[in-house]
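pls ignore typos typing on phone
copper (II) ion + seq
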Amino acid sequence: MTTDSHALVPVEHSPIAGFAHDSRGGISNPVLGMLLFLTSEVMFFGGLFAAYFSVRANAPQWPPEEFRATLQILPLVGPATILLILSSFTCQFAVWAIRRDDRTAFLRNMTVTVALGITFLLMQGTDYVTLGSEGLTLSSGTFGTTYYTLTGFHGAHVFGGVIMLSVVLYRGMAGQFSSRHHDAVEGASLYWHFVDVVWILLFSLLYLLPGR
Amino acid sequence: MATTTLTPAASAYRSGLYAWLTTTDHKKIGIMYLINSFVFFFIAGLMVLVVRAELAQPGLQFVTDATYNELFSMHATVMIFVFIIPILAGFANYVVPLQIGAPDMAFPRINAMSFWMLPLGGTLLLLGFVTGGAAAAGWTSYPPLSEDRPLAAIGSGQDLWIVGLVLIGTSSILGAINFLVTIFKMRAPGMTLFRMPILVWTVLVTSVLVLMATPVITSALIMLFIDRNYGGSFFDPRVGGDPILYQNVFWFYSHPAVYVMVLPAMGMISEILPVFSRKPLFGYKAFVFATAGIGALGFSVWAHHMFTTGAVYLPFFSLMTFLIAVPTGVKMFNWIFTLWRGKLTLATPLLFALGFLSMFLIGGIDGAFSAAVPVDFALHDTYWVVSHLHYVLFGGSVFGVMAGFYFYFPKMTGRMLNETVGKLQFVLMCSGFNLTFFPMHELGLAGMPRRIADYSSAAGWNDLNMLATIGGFTIAASMIPFLWNVFVSLRSGKPAGDDPWEANTLEWATSSPPPPYNFDHLPEIRSERPLFDLRHGRTAGH
Ligand code: HEM
Ligand SMILES: [Cu+2]
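k done
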């Protein structure tokens, strides 16, 4: 049984745990892992964006006649965008706070970030309902399909981010983070910035780029 | 070895099976990868035996057209996504941490999760057979065929296919992240990048390919799913969609994926050839740069699968495809000059490695032919392509897998496989393989299209098809000595000792099988062959 004697030892206490924390300086394993994961996410959205450009370029008219005035920056999407951008700032403030061991500021900023994320999701949901009532659905031709697929997958990522940040917040309240030990905070904040950048691109494409 | 004190309740659970199911040890996970992959290999193999039986003669003897479509589609899907890609990841899982002197992968629990997604995803793929029909639009699943609503009405197979592949793809991506962090951050002191064994290099490049390409097919699959189930119109030309878009996104992944399917096998070959010719690998750095070159160029050739659509810029993609043959050729020279004037030991791993070299060479030359646009216009979608892809994937990757299996089995189990039975397997497999796939060149040139269940007896394809079927069953027969060998050797094989092959790299410096966390102490690492240095009392390498 000796060969299996480590089977029940939690990974944190295993001989390899030491490798996770800057054993050779530089960026830690979880943060590197997150950066690589984000690379794959870039490629995933790259596929969706490529599809968007392709169908948009092939369409005789964009947006199609019946949806010329459907996508509106006000009242919801513009403010939601501002809130999401703000949340990236508060998230970064939280990271800076924990780096200097200021737990109060960390928790305060993290709470605001999570709240902003949830607000964004609620606003997006409301917007979906409005758009749906105006007749724009997933099956309204390529315009509807691409709109909902892109924003939907972005929304799913915001949702994932909110979960991630909530776990970080919860662990933060339990006092698990310090200036020396907060890889989860760094990782989650990288993810959150990524989600924010994707939204800025999406917003520019869907709402700002002039149609024809 | 240190034992941990356990509560009685805990030790009751620690029986063999439970320990395996809950393990985060990269070696156990690696072995589970191998077992799982071989199970799916046999399933996909059985499917294609039916296909070959059907094609032996003109007329429909065994299955209906519809079943035939399901069989060849699922054969290819399972072989590619649940056999060859995962089994190479399995070898990498087992060997890479050992070769770089690490105690485990960087994220052991994510590693376990990556594994468990595979049997799940594979089962989802196959579930179609019992829910009214598996996916039947080929492993490429081009729309409009794969979106055809009447076809979709037959069963949920195509949707299960999508969901299964997304899962398997996610498993690959998580695995790739794990490999990259492991390779970048967990190397033992002294193990610089240019002292890493070639297998580690190939896994590194493969992981980059997986990381950058697999998410793209995930996006394609999701778009297909939306089209099929939620009235989307990405690929539906009736409502402004574009079927060629799918092909572009699909091949943006699937061409790099062919390197995912072969690079780690090339890595294992590059470990085996030096050991059995008692020479270092010829041109280590050239090999590394060739591998990186293949990885980079691999992203610029995808449209060679779409020449005949008329929708891609032919000169560019043709040129790039010819170019990618160059680094592949460099590797051929690395291998041949490694063998050149070496003291060859014709053990089974070397036999399979030589099989790899010769078969892969044929497949590569076939590929270069198809890279010429006018030639491809004639050969596209004929049996020529089937021949090409099997020479690279079966003749290359599967022979590489077998070479690796015979090579690493002693490390994994502490016992040697039987050499005589191994050679018998090699002879059967190699002759069966060529009997099956060589005639397909001829069939392709004679115009026989791929993916057909029946053909006219007047077409002149009868004899060659019969030959290919005989070959197919010969390959199947070669699995009997293989299984027998594994079965018997596990029980009564010759004990292997730490280093049965007098090899060069770190995995052979620990016991067989290695203890949890791999090493009690590591030899000094001064070159890419630390064990060779140790044996010959050399302390300074290059
Ligand atoms: C010397 C390098 C290679 C060249 C120049 C090359 C070229 C090509 C071309 C032009 C095609 C398209 C043929 C057609 O459909 O008309 C093709 C198909 C294919 N190749 Fe290669 N290839 C090379 C290496 C490989 C390798 C290393 C693998 C896998 C290990 C591979 C796997 C495949 C597969 C699976 C297909 C068929 C895909 C399908 O339509 O189902 N090739 N190759
Ligand atoms: Cu290709």
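Confidence is low (pLDDT under 50) at residues 1-13 of chain B. Residues B 255, 258, 301, 304-305 surround copper (II) ion (ligand 2) (CB under 6 Å). more later
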